[in-house]
Design brief:
The complex is a heterodimer of chains A (226) and B (195). Chain A is of the alpha/beta class. Chain A has six helices and nine strands. Classes of the chains: A alpha/beta (226), B alpha/beta (195).
Chain lengths: 226, 195
């Protein structure tokens, strides 16, 4: 079955892509690029770099712009998926939803209206076990956005290795926060994945931070051999 | 042992992680050993050694299980509790002589309990996650226990603990699966070693 992966460039959509590739053919990545940084449905920091990540993975990218307005985002998503059907013959989509009924419901409705399959291979995972599997599977990712009280500025741009992951999990338990950050507590950017043919090297980046909210903006990056 | 049956489009499919693994984790967390089997690969030993069976849901476009109803004949003589979730409920209904029809439900929906049952004790209504494009017409041997705007949501065979649930209890309603498991008792004189 030819599938398109809804791809934000963060760990969840990248890991969902990895899982889908184990069972089916991933024909393209699909990204919705919201101009509104507070998008309800889509991941925003460094979203334009999905082009570089798709190149690293050797997969075509379908990218569609969105104003990031709450329910209009669903129409933008439908438009993006329809392009995946037209340009790459996809029969279904894959998402990185874990516990978000809000996200899953909207994507399921779009797929149903377009008569497409919808797969959520991370659905209902225990977040801590899931994070362990992401890191132990060879994914490399950094924190590209923060939006919750426990996070200080030092987290921006920090790469999540096994040590950082232990700190993150402990912090999530202490503050009763979702350790996977699915509620937008933090965002990630994937530098390398098992299905990447090349890895991403960040050359220049800058951080913006104010009272536990911040963004790590990658201004220049390149692909390098693995 | 609780038999967790995968109804998806092929053994080991991408749906396994989404519809079967979450149910298996809840069952294991309750201390029950589990055995996952695809409905096309069930052996007599799998069935004979199970203390209960859960038939899991599938992706919305996946209806292949309804074309292989002969694979579910074992349900009619299975002596232990059964919980059919979504596609599993449709299979139960078809196996016992009821029918399915087009009716879609996607997302959280309020459930109304309409008949008392130990599975639902203390619950009059609750929200649940629906993901289906077929609904059921239960056979006469079943009663409707709960409904939502998209039709019968929980049914039960009148004289046995054979339940069908159209919504997905593994999402935000794990209590229902835990209560079902409390109805599953080890079968006398049965164990894997004796089979």
């Amino acid at each position: 079955m030819k599938l398109g992966v809804l791809f934000s460039g963060g760990k969840d959509s990248a890991f969902a892509c990895h899982k889908a590739m184990e069972k089916e053919e991933v024909a393209c990545l699909i990204s919705v690029l919201p101009s509104n940084p507070d998008s309800y449905l889509f991941h925003t920091p460094n979203i334009s770099l999905t082009t570089l990540q798709a190149e690293a993975a050797g997969l075509p990218l379908v990218a569609v712009g969105s104003e990031g307005v709450e329910e209009a985002e669903v129409a933008d998503l439908s438009r993006a998926i329809s392009r995946g059907v037209e340009e790459h013959g996809i029969e279904g989509v894959v998402t990185g939803a874990i516990h978000s009924v809000y996200q899953a419901t909207r994507i399921q409705r779009v797929c149903h209206s377009l008569d497409l399959w919808c797969f959520n291979p991370l659905w209902q995972r225990d977040e801590e076990e899931y994070l362990d599997e992401v890191v132990s599977s060879g994914f490399r990712f950094l924190i590209s956005g923060i939006s919750a009280a426990p996070f200080g500025e030092a987290w921006l741009g920090k790469e999540v290795d096994p040590g950082t992951l232990d700190t993150l999990k402990a912090m999530a338990r202490r503050h009763r926060m979702n350790p996977a950050g699915e509620g937008g507590e933090y965002e990630t950017f994937v530098l390398d994945a098992p299905f990447f043919r090349k890895r991403i090297d960040v050359l220049r980046a800058s951080g913006e931070y104010h009272e536990h909210h911040g963004t790590y903006r990658i201004e220049d990056a390149r692909l390098v051999a693995k | 042992m609780i038999l967790v049956v995968d109804l998806s489009y092929r053994p080991g499919s991408l749906s396994l992680d989404e519809f079967v693994a979450p149910v298996e984790r809840i069952v294991q967390k309750e201390g029950h050993p589990t055995r996952i089997r695809h409905y096309t690969n069930l052996s007599r030993q799998d069935i004979a050694s199970a203390d209960g069976a859960i038939l899991c849901g599938t992706a919305m476009k996946d209806f292949g299980y309804l074309e292989g109803m002969e694979k579910f004949a074992w349900l009619l003589s299975f002596p232990c509790p059964v919980l059919g979730i979504c596609a599993g409920m449709q299979v139960l209904v078809r196996a016992y002589g009821g029918d399915v029809h087009r009716k879609t439900g996607i997302g959280m929906a309020e459930q109304q309990v309409v008949a008392p049952d130990p599975l639902l004790a203390g619950r009059e209504g609750f929200p649940a996650y629906e993901l289906h494009c077929l609904s059921v017409v239960p056979p006469p041997s079943f009663m409707i226990l709960a409904t939502s705007v998209s039709g019968a949501q929980i049914i039960r065979q009148k004289d046995r603990p054979v339940y069908g649930v159209m919504f997905h209890p593994e999402v935000r309603n794990e209590w229902l699966i835990r209560r079902f498991l409390s109805l599953c008792r080890p079968r006398k004189g049965q164990s894997d070693e004796l089979m």
